[in-house]
């Protein structure tokens, strides 16, 4: 049959109409798009019954309260807990990632020992515990314990083991806690300083990064949330003084630029103005303090801290006018500050009538220790890890034969980490109880995997900053996903074999005793409840410790021509967690590009240094050097370079390892005159083009 | 173009004066909606974020400098530019609640919607998602995992609305009359500063409706006329000015 032109056109028209009318091609297209998405390597949703468990984070330094959502037996989400005093309906960027950290590629999955060739070899728990026991026995009293936990009763266990072996060397990784505790002790104080931000009507944070990393952050943020109704004038003014317009400054109603490490000077300047306006403190050394404060004239504060006299006077006037002001002092990066910083801040609070007043500063009682041979919180705060390692380095104290690290990462997290690591190299036997293969674990002979806080029993007692006594349990919400054992159980077993008398067989018994000592009800704690108390620690003969402030400030290092201002953000993790897998997306574009970090300075500083945005520079000083690119950010004080903490890991996994460099390399350790407290909040730096 | 109206119109008001840029919303969003982590997240063009936090600057030199942070979920436009360009109706706005849907199994990956979206709220899966180290065990059952080759975006945690409606039905209540707070997105829930308010824009009793009518409330690129359901609130003029393209001498409402 011949096809003529007309017939052909009819066929084409018919076929076109048919194709358009039939659903087949569209259905096929739809099917293709669906079936090309059904690959076996794409995970399927696994359903199950939802349940929620209230617990508390042992990973986030803010001790975030949280609700864990489980689907069947699987934990899938960390959610805020409206009813928890350490969450108050919020969650931190770090705690929000905690379930995912259970499956972090850098988790240690089984006990490991360092083989002669430098590789790690998997061993059984039996062999690992035997190795630990033998080495601790061999070390005798020449043993040191280092803990990365600020709030847990495990510190009593670790310090008890140290003391039972005849050693006084138990240390906690440095933070805001030690200078605060030592400050209050030098005031003859009893208990722990707490700050009633939620009832205050004027919040002035000097250095203290209260909306990001200082103290019980979620509680601080809840106070901020409640006092800053959306689209309305805030009911409470938040002011932040620090060298960088960081997250706290971004949320605050006013940013008062003040140089790094000058928190005590700013506070003394305010004290001077308050005293001139008639404020007094009922303390035996007030006259001495008054004379000392008089030295800190607005002009002197301007010269030392970079705060203009007019601003200082304006803030002081606002503080005086407020009914319930509170002043919080600390380090903008959560460590390295001196005792005088806290003392000067507390003195300002006293001048404002804020000590013991609602919306001011209070002293909360701490539960007594339950392990007789262990150290209590005050004793622990007196132990300075950085000073200890420096003394070993200088040959002033003997190098221990064994060091036990409990969820601590000093090889990454201490100032001058290379020098600290060199000291640790001298120690013949090192063991790390850790969840992640961090820098310290890699430097150890034995690595013992611990379950995360979501997989074990643990406790939190009154984190620093909270204004009421607190006790709560972290409870296992799921079985441990690796072959781990709680460090406390392992250590109690080893202690028993070494004939140490700690008074307890299991850690659960220790926690029960601690709960009782704190006044908490164990059964309700086990159900996810928590204990709080409004009891106040009684004080007698409280002083200002003007002599301590005087000595420290007389010898305070002068700010350098060009300074480093480390910036702490919880989303970038801690030395213990590194950057959690989900969190590296929260790092800003000009904070990190591929593996190169950026440091920030303002335009004037950049012009002075002759550098431009994106330029590669080298920052160096006597402690070390790092390379970075330049970002121009006008929220940095002149002659200051803001450097993010949390980069430069040499361990962990692809989400952290090799990204940027570690600012701790540039922080130089000094010692506060009078107290001897190690400090590293002032660091000068030189910049050269790389 | 006429905006399609609904009885319930889910919306968000984000107070830019309260956001400190901590990133909790971004982490919570990823965990809730099963986004895969990525080792190098510095290439912001290819990184998947249903909500991302931008840094805003007033552009003034120190010491007059001010900073703000702007969390950007899908703006859930009233007449969304993405919907009209989708050749396979993988994205649509026709469901009660006014959430712009994204049916990923239907998406053919042409990315017209990405080109059309003025807010960069849509992301293309350039690679298959990978959850290293058993991380897939922490996936929620609520949101399907997307393979490479499809576009995805914020859905205002639509599954949470479904769950809230289911709960109301089981309890014998009207699923279209949920109490305020019964359904909120994961980012709203996570924000420790309370910067995000979520609710029904059509319900005058809901806080979000009150905030949306505030003189300080603006929408992103409002004059494009997309009629978005996300409002940004700020008492700072310079912040509001950055939400749209204003002439130098032009006044900003608020």
How would you describe the overall organization of this protein?
The complex is a heterodimer of chains A (690) and B (254). Chain A is α/β, with parallel strands linked by helices and 690 residues long. Chain A has five domains: 5-35; 50-101; 112-176 and 369-530, 3-Layer(aba) Sandwich (Rossmann fold), CATH 3.40.50; 178-364, Dimethylsulfoxide Reductase, domain 2; 558-689, Barwin-like endoglucanases (Beta Barrel). Helices cover 31% and strands 19% of the residues of chain A. A seven-stranded mixed β-sheet of chain A has the order 5-4-16-15-14-6-7. The model of chain A has no long low-confidence stretch (mean pLDDT 96). Chain B is an alpha+beta fold and 254 residues long. In chain B, the strands form three sheets. Chain B has a four-stranded mixed β-sheet with strand order 6-1-8-7. A two-stranded antiparallel ribbon of chain B has the order 2-3. In chain B, strands 4-5 form a two-stranded antiparallel sheet. At the A-B interface, helix 2, strand 3, helix 7, helix 8 and strand 21 of A face helix 1, strand 2 and strand 3 of B.
Short description:
The complex is a heterodimer of chains A (690) and B (254). Chain A is an alpha/beta fold. By secondary structure, chain B is α+β, with helices and mostly antiparallel strands.
SS-derived structural category of chain B: alpha+beta
The end-to-end distance of chain B, rounded to whole angstroms, is 27 Å
The total count of strands of chain A amounts to 28
- Tally of DSSP helical segments of chain A: 23
Count of folded domains of chain B: 1
Nearest-integer average pLDDT of chain A = 96
Notable characteristics:
heterodimer; A: 690 residues; alpha/beta; Rossmann fold; 5 domains; 5-stranded mixed β-sheet; 23 helices; 31% helix; B: 254 residues; alpha+beta; Alpha-Beta Plaits; 4-stranded mixed β-sheet; two-stranded antiparallel sheet; 7 helices; 14% strand
């Amino acid at each position: 049959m011949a096809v003529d032109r007309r017939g052909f056109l009819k066929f084409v028209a018919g076929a076109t109409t048919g194709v358009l009318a039939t659903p087949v091609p569209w259905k096929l297209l739809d099917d293709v798009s669906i079936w090309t998405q059904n690959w076996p390597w794409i995970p399927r949703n696994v359903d199950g019954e939802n349940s929620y468990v209230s617990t508390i984070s042992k990973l986030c330094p803010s001790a975030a309260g949280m609700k864990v959502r489980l689907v069947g037996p699987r934990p899938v989400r960390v959610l805020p807990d409206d009813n928890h005093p350490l969450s108050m309906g919020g969650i931190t960027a770090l705690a929000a990632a905690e379930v995912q950290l259970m499956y972090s590629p850098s988790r240690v999955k089984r006990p490991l020992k360092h083989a002669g060739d430098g590789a790690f070899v998997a061993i059984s728990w039996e062999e690992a515990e035997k190795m630990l026991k033998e080495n601790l026995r061999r070390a005798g009293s020449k043993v040191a314990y280092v803990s990365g936990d600020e709030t847990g009763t495990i510190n009593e266990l670790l310090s008890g083991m140290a003391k039972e072996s005849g050693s006084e060397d138990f240390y906690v990784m440095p933070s805001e806690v030690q200078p605060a505790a030592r400050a209050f002790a030098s005031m003859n104080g009893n208990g722990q300083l707490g700050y009633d931000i939620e009832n205050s009507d004027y919040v002035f944070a000097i250095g203290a990064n209260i909306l990001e990393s200082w103290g019980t952050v979620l509680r601080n943020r809840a106070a901020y949330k409640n006092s800053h109704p959306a689209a309305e004038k805030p009911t409470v003014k938040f002011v932040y003084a620090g060298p960088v317009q960081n997250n706290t400054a971004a949320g605050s109603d006013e940013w008062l630029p003040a140089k790094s490490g000058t928190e005590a000077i700013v506070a003394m300047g305010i004290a001077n103005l308050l005293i001139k306006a008639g404020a007094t403190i009922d303390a035996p050394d007030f006259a001495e303090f008054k004379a000392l404060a008089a030295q800190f004239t607005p002009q002197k504060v301007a010269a030392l801290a970079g705060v203009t006299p007019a601003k200082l006077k304006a803030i002081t006037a606002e503080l005086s006018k407020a009914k319930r002001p509170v002043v919080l002092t600390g380090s903008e990066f959560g460590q390295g500050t001196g005792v005088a910083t806290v003392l000067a801040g507390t003195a300002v609070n006293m001048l404002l009538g804020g000590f013991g007043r609602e919306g001011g500063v209070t002293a909360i009682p701490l539960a007594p220790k339950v392990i007789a041979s262990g150290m209590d919180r005050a004793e622990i705060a007196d132990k300075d890890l950085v000073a200890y390692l420096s003394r070993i380095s200088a040959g002033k104290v003997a190098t221990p034969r064994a060091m036990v690290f409990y969820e601590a990462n000093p090889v990454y997290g201490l100032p001058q980490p290379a020098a600290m690591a060199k000291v640790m190299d001298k120690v013949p036997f090192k063991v790390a109880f850790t969840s992640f293969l961090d820098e310290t674990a890699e430097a150890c002979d034995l690595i013992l995997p611990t379950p995360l806080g979501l997989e074990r029993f643990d406790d939190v007692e009154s984190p620093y900053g909270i204004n009421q006594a607190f006790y709560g349990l972290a409870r296992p919400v799921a079985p441990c996903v690796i072959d781990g054992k709680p460090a406390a159980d392992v250590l109690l077993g080893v202690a028993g074999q070494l004939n140490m008398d700690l008074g307890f067989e299991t850690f659960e018994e220790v926690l029960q005793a601690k709960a009782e000592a704190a006044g908490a009800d164990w059964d309700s704690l086990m159900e996810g409840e928590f204990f709080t108390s409004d009891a106040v620690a009684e004080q007698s003969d409280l002083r200002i410790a003007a002599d301590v402030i005087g000595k420290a400030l007389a010898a305070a290092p002068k700010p350098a021509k060009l300074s480093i201002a480390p910036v702490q953000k919880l989303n970038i993790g801690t030395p213990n967690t590194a950057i959690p897998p989900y969190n590296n997306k929260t790092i800003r574009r000009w904070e990190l590009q591929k593996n190169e970090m950026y440091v920030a300075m303002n335009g004037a500083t950049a012009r002075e240094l002759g550098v431009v945005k994106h330029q590669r520079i080298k920052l160096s000083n006597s402690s070390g050097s790092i390379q970075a690119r330049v970002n121009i950010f006008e929220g940095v004080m002149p002659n200051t370079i803001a450097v993010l903490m949390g980069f430069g890991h040499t361990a962990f996994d692809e989400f952290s390892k090799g990204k940027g460099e570690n600012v701790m390399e540039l922080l130089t350790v000094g010692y506060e005159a009078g107290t001897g407290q190690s400090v590293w909040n002032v660091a000068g730096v030189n910049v050269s083009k790389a | 173009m006429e905006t399609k109206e609904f009885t319930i119109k889910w919306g968000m008001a984000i107070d830019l004066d309260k956001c400190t840029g901590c990133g909790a919303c971004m982490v919570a969003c990823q965990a809730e909606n099963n986004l895969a982590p990525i080792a190098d997240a510095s290439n912001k063009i290819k990184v998947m974020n249903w909500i991302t936090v931008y840094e805003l600057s007033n552009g003034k030199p120190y010491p007059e400098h001010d900073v703000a942070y702007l969390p950007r979920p899908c703006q859930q436009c009233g007449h969304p530019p993405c919907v009209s360009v989708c050749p396979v109706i993988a994205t649509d706005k026709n469901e009660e609640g006014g959430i712009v849907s994204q049916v990923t199994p239907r998406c053919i990956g042409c990315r017209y919607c990405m080109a059309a979206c003025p807010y960069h709220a849509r992301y293309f899966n350039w690679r298959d998602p990978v959850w290293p180290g058993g991380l897939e065990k922490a996936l929620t059952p609520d949101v399907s995992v997307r393979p490479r080759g499809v576009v995805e975006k914020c859905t205002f945690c639509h599954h949470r609305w479904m769950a809230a409606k289911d709960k109301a039905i089981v309890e014998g209540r009207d699923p279209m009359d949920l109490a305020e707070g019964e359904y909120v997105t994961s980012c709203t829930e996570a924000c420790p500063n309370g910067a995000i308010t979520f609710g029904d824009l059509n319900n005058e009793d809901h806080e979000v409706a009150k905030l949306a009518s505030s003189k300080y409330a603006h929408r992103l690129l409002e004059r494009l006329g997309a009629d978005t359901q996300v409002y940004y609130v700020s008492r700072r003029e310079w912040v509001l000015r950055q939400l749209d393209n204003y002439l130098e001498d032009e006044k900003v409402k608020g």
